[in-house]
């Protein structure tokens, strides 16, 4: 079965209908993702949909290893990219697929796109990253919250009280100055997100505004997913990559 | 003056020799002997085997214990482990001009993951960071022989090693035999596509070792020894 994934079959994924919807909220740290996921979840539940939320680094299998690796800063770029892929695959198979099979809506606070952008910024080729995540399910909708670097900076500082080592890309040695590194890193990330977004069909939402305004736009994108859902056959994703990974 | 010519296979100054084959095929014994011989000749040798690095050993153990692993996570976890070993242990000596002898390499993953139903093209892409070795020695052996050795060694056959996660059989030994047969078929298949040097492992240790040395000698023609490099110029 490859028509629900990005081109590579996922062993064990059966023909059974995945009745639920997979909605992804992407965006840089400080773009308001987490707030939006909470608002959207609340709204969907009030509308009567069962919602399961998920995010990165939450798998039971390797979350600890990732945390430890981040503390020690010792892993190479390829190793780190693959460790994140393990974490993602574990959640996809043990959380996302079962929830969709049960008819729930899965709200993902980041998905493969962040992982791809981070890996490419750290030296992986786009092609490698794209094919690595060929086993991922194609979401029904990907919303990208787009905010200016200055906004991200202020939100990061107000959230953590300082800039985060990883969100500033300090491991890339772009600058020894945290502040400069933050901007250089976010600039590179946003270039990669532009590529990923074009490749995978992101719906961009202006996230330089207040949460209620962002939420209103996101709802307008999400609502149509449920309109014809009552008697629908197993869904096919409305978002397709421009190119498919070779699967043979 | 001796100097390192970049390898025609991967472009690094060192040379990469890989030993592949089923458990119990005798490859580890032979890899160790070859390493000893190379060292005795004065070459700078780095020997490494792919079991588990500190990084993922605990995770793999935990996953295995709870049988949490699927073909996809199993594959990615081993790829992570290999990448860590590659980035930290294989690449630096290769760049420094060492002879790197690997007991198992990416091919082990190609074979094992294919036997578990992963898409071979997907797996190959993941490992595309691993350079092509100068020579891959594949130790070909009948599955029945490896099973006999396994039993004689009294090492416990573990769940994943027997491919029990595939549901081939409820019996551990039976499953082991079936799974190893799949691995062997896959090894035999890629032995052609990836141009392995096939070693018939049903012969005395000395015979095999001398054949291996014969294969390696021409590759090391004019390759500098440590002595030559250190006192050069």
CATH third-level topology of chain A: Rossmann fold
Overall shape of chain B: it is globular
Biggest sheet of chain B: strands side by side, in what order? 2-3-1-4-5
**Largest contact between chains:** A-B, 31 and 31 residues
Helix content of chain B: 40-55%
Continuous helix count of chain A: 9
Can you tell me the overall shape of chain A? globular
Note down, in words, how this protein is organized.
The complex is a heterodimer of chains A (248) and B (233). Chain A has helices at residues 33-46, 63-72, 77-101, 112-121, 126-132, 149-160, 178-200, 211-222, 224-227, and strands at residues 22-27, 51-55, 105-109, 141-146, 203-206. Chain A is an alpha/beta fold and 248 residues long. The longest helix of chain A is centred in the middle third of the chain and has 25 residues, at 77-101. Chain A contains nine helices and five strands; from the N terminus they run E-H-E-H-H-E-H-H-E-H-H-E-H-H. Chain A has one domain (22-227): Rossmann fold. Chain A has a five-stranded parallel beta sheet with strand order 2-3-1-4-5, with helices on both faces. In chain A, 47% of the residues lie in helices and 10% in strands. Chain B has 233 residues and is of the alpha/beta class. Chain B has one domain: 3-Layer(aba) Sandwich (Rossmann fold), CATH 3.40.50. Helix content of chain B is 51%, strand content 12%. Chain B is built from nine helices and five strands, in the order E-H-E-H-H-E-H-H-E-H-H-E-H-H. Chain B has helices spanning 27-40, 54-66, 71-95, 106-115, 120-126, 143-153, 172-193, 205-216, 226-230, and strands at residues 15-21, 45-49, 99-103, 135-140, 197-200. Chain B has a five-stranded parallel beta sheet with strand order 2-3-1-4-5, sandwiched between helices. The longest helix of chain B is centred in the middle third of the chain and has 25 residues, at 71-95. Chain B is globular, with a radius of gyration of 18 Å.
């Amino acid at each position: 079965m490859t028509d629900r994934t990005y081109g590579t079959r996922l062993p064990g994924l059966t023909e059974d209908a995945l009745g639920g919807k997979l909605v992804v909220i992407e965006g840089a740290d400080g773009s308001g993702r987490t707030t939006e996921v909470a608002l959207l979840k609340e709204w969907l539940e009030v509308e009567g949909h069962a919602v399961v939320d998920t995010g990165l680094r939450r798998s039971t299998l390797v979350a600890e290893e990732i945390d430890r690796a981040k503390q020690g800063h010792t892993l190479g770029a390829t190793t780190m990219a693959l460790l994140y892929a393990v974490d993602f695959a574990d959640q996809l198979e043990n959380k996302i697929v079962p929830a969709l099979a049960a008819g729930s809506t899965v709200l993902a606070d980041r998905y493969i796109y962040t992982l791809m952008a981070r890996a490419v910024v750290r030296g992986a080729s786009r092609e490698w990253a794209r094919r690595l995540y060929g086993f991922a399910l194609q979401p029904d909708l990907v919303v990208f919250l787009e905010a200016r670097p200055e906004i991200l900076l202020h939100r990061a500082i107000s959230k953590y009280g300082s800039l985060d080592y990883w969100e500033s890309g300090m491991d890339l040695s772009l600058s020894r100055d945290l502040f400069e590194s933050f901007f250089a890193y976010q600039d590179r990330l946003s270039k990669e997100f532009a590529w990923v977004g074009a490749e995978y069909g992101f719906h961009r939402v202006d996230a330089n505004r207040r949460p209620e305004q962002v939420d209103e736009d996101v709802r307008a994108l999400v609502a149509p997913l449920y309109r014809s859902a009552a008697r629908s056959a197993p869904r096919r994703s409305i978002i397709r990559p421009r190119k498919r990974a070779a699967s043979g | 003056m001796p100097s390192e010519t970049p390898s025609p296979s991967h472009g690094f100054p060192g040379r990469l020799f890989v030993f592949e084959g089923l458990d119990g095929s005798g490859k580890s014994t032979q890899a160790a002997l070859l390493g000893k011989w190379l060292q005795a000749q004065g070459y700078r040798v780095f020997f490494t085997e792919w079991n588990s690095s500190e990084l993922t050993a605990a995770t793999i153990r935990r996953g295995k214990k709870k049988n949490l692993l699927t073909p996809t996570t199993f594959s990615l976890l081993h790829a992570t482990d290999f990448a860590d070993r590659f980035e930290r242990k294989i690449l630096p000596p290769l760049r420094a001009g060492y002879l790197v002898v690997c007991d198992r390499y990416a091919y082990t993953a190609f074979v094992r993951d294919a036997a578990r139903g992963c898409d071979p093209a997907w797996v190959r892409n993941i490992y595309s960071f691993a350079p092509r070795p100068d020579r891959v020695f594949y130790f070909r052996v009948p599955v029945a022989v490896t099973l006999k050795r396994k039993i004689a060694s009294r090492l416990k056959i573990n769940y994943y090693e027997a491919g029990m996660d595939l549901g081939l059989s409820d019996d551990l030994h039976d499953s082991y035999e079936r799974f190893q047969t799949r691995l062997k078929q896959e090894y035999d298949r890629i032995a052609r596509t990836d141009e392995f040097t096939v070693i018939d492992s049903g012969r005395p240790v000395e015979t095999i070792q001398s054949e291996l040395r014969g294969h390696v000698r021409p590759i090391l023609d004019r390759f500098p020894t440590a002595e030559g490099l250190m006192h050069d110029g």
